[in-house]
C-alpha cells in the first residue's frame, strides 16, 4: 500500500510539474512556433538540455547536477529519433530534447539536426516504476513509429531498404525503412527534408523520421506522404498516357527539380541541391497525374561558393541513368553545378520514357500510335548494368535511346523529343538547365491551351 501511494504521489507531482513547464513554453515560444501559411517554420530546435524524467528535486543547488546526469539517463530510458514536418505540426508539438543511440549526422546542410521526441497525448503515455517501488516513475513516450500500422507486403524496394504502406490517424502514409548499416543515407535524407524552406508541391511530402527497436537491430524509418499510383516507372509500365498528360508530368518533375537546384536566400531559405539519382523509379505519381520527386538519400548540397558540402562522401546513382562525364570519371566533384548538369542528362532519359508510353495521333497519316514502355537503352542492356558496359555504350559508342519516327509527326511529341535531344548531348555545358527547361515546357503547355486541345485534367 505504501509503495502504491508513493507511485501515485510521484505521478501526480510529475503531471503538475509538466503542466507548469508546458505553460511556460506556450508563453515564451508562441511566436517562434507559429506556422506561416507561406513560409513553413524552421526545423524544430531543442527546448531543454535536461530531462525532467531524471529528477524532480525543487532544490536550486541540485538542479545543475540533475542537468548533467539527465543525458546519460535518457540514453538508457528512451530511444527515439524524430523530426517533425511543419505540415503535421499539430501532431508534433516540441516536447523535450533527448539523446539518441545513433550517431549525430556527420555533415549538416544549413543547420545541425535536432534530435527530439514529439508531444504525445496523455492517454498515450506509458508509466513504469522501478521494480522495488522506490524512486519516481518514468514516463516513456510512444513515438510515431509505434502509432503506425504497416500494411504488408512492401510496396517497393530500393538500394537502402523497403517501402511500406502504413496507416496513421486514419490516413495512409508511406514508410521507408532503413537498416542501421544505412544510417548515413537515412541521416542525409532526413537532413534535407528538414531543411527550412524545402517543402514544395513537386517534392515528396515529408512527415517525420523515427527509429524502432527490432530486438537484434534498430530499424530507421522515414515517413512521407503516400501516393496510390506509385512510382512513375510503375505507372508507365501499366498505363498508357496521352501526349498532353506527358507534358503535365514532365513540367511537374522539372518544377520540383528547379526548386532543388535553386538556392533561396532568405531567413527561411534553402541551399542549392542536386538529387544525384534521378530516375523514373524515384518519381511518384499523384492522384491528379502530376509528379513529385522522392528518394533524396544521395542528394548533395552546395555552400555559398557553389562547392559541394559533402566533400569526400559523394556516392553515385543508378548506372543506367548516369551522364557521360560521370561514367568517364571526368566530372569535377568539388562543385555542385557539375552534378546539376549531369542530372539534366537523367531528365532526358525520363522524358524519353514518357514519350515511349504515349498514345498519340500521327498528324501526317492520322493513325493512332502507341508503344510499350521500356527502360532507356533496353535494346543493349538488361537488368542492372555495370559501369564499364554503360561507359562503353554511352561514352565510346556514343549511343543514345532509340527514337521512333512517328514521334516527329506529332507537334507535342516532337517538342518533347527535341528537348530530350538537347539534354542528352555529351557536353554538359550545352545542356539546358532546369529553369530553361521549365520555360520550354511551359511554352509547349501554353500552346496546347491556346489550341483548346488540353483535357480538363491539365486545366
From TrEMBL:
SMART domains: GS (SM00467), S_TKc (SM00220). The keyword Metal-binding does not apply. InterPro entries: GS_dom, Kinase-like_dom_sf, Prot_kinase_dom, Protein_kinase_ATP_BS, Ser/Thr_kinase_AS, TGFB_receptor. One of its GO terms (molecular function) is transmembrane receptor protein serine/threonine kinase activity. Keywords: ATP-binding, Kinase, Membrane, Nucleotide-binding, Receptor, Serine/threonine-protein kinase, Signal, Transferase, Transmembrane, Transmembrane helix. Residues 27-71 are annotated as: Disordered. This is receptor protein serine/threonine kinase.
